[in-house]
Specification:
The protein is of the alpha+beta class. 46% of the residues lie in helices and 21% in strands.
Length: 312
């Protein structure tokens, strides 16, 4: 999951095309923008390139040409245009930061992760923002630099503390780093932020499956009685093997404290916890919700309590 997202370029069809400062033949630039907006990228490239001949220090034109190449699937041509733009002195800081962000996304897609990190760092030095910290964190995670990834997720959350996605991914890093308690806390925060309705289900019995109709924003809470020293295992998975539903789960103790959680450890987007040793007897709660991958449909929720750890 981390590697996949670290490779997603930070650009889109509706990427804004900045306006250049005082220039020669501004009408050519306007024509190019209109062609870009109409998704006629080949003609847009011709117009932007012509404009650049008359205005070789207008970085906006190289940037827009690069975006056009990206929308045509030509990353190498885009990189060449970004290099031209970055060779210009005194680029507007917001434009320079955008170029570094988008180029970093291309490097990530090409698995040139060190270069991606370098460009994200350059963008953050110019204009710090949560999305860029998030993207650099994913690159650090793909490089297995978990401490750096966590630092960036923390920085992103300082800027955008109500973004539920950040908690899921920081939780994933915590879990990868063996910090399961902190992972569970982040997963619970995510669930609380995305919840639009809550359904309190019937008590779970060891080995018995219950069905739920899940959709984004729906949270299911299932009570269960546990004994200290027993092992809890649980899964929440789509009942249709052809329908992937991304689920997330968190086990709460009798005080509501999150103990263990999971996102994506099972097949087909399933949340899966294996062999968590129960620390105290009591009435616990298992929370189930959609994770960031979403999906709607029927899921099966099943848990096992055993005296010995289950084997895979």
């Amino acid at each position: 999951m981390i590697m996949l997202l670290a490779a997603v370029p930070v650009f889109a069809q509706d990427e804004p095309t900045p306006e250049p400062a005082a220039v020669v033949f501004p009408g050519i630039f306007d024509q190019a923008v209109a062609l870009f907006d109409a998704q006629d990228y080949e003609q847009a490239i011709l117009r932007f390139s012509l404009f650049s001949l008359f205005n070789p220090t207008a970085g906006e034109s190289y940037y827009a040409t690069a975006l056009s190449h990206l929308n045509l699937g030509d990353a190498e041509a885009a990189l060449a245009e970004f290099d031209l733009a970055l060779s210009i002195d005194d680029l507007p800081p917001d434009l320079e930061a955008d170029i570094y962000r988008v180029r970093a996304g291309i490097y990530g897609q090409q698995e040139r992760l060190d270069e991606a990190v370098s460009d994200y760092t350059a963008a953050l030095d110019l204009i710090p923002d949560a999305q860029t910290y998030f993207r650099r964190a994913l690159s650090y995670a793909a490089l297995e630099q978990l401490d750096n990834a966590l630092a960036d997720f923390n920085a992103a959350l300082e800027l955008d503390g109500q973004n539920p996605v950040l908690y899921v991914y920081r939780g994933y890093i915590y879990a990868t780093d063996g910090q399961t308690q902190l992972a569970a806390e982040d997963y619970l925060t995510y669930i609380n932020l995305i919840q639009t309705e809550r359904t309190d289900g019937a008590a779970l019995e060891s080995g018995a499956a219950v069905m739920a109709q899940i959709e984004p924003g729906a949270v299911f809470a299932y009570p269960l009685e546990v004994k200290v020293g027993t092992y809890f295992s649980g899964i929440a998975i789509s009942t249709d093997e052809n329908t992937a539903i991304d689920t997330i789960m968190v086990l709460l103790d009798e005080t509501g404290k999150p103990l263990i959680g999971d996102d994506d450890s099972g097949n087909n987007g399933a949340a899966l916890v294996l062999n968590y040793e129960i620390p105290n007897s009591g009435a616990y709660t298992l929370l189930i919700a959609n994770s960031t991958g979403g999906g709607s449909g029927q899921i099966a929720v099943q848990m096992f309590l055993s005296d010995e750890p289950l084997t895979n």
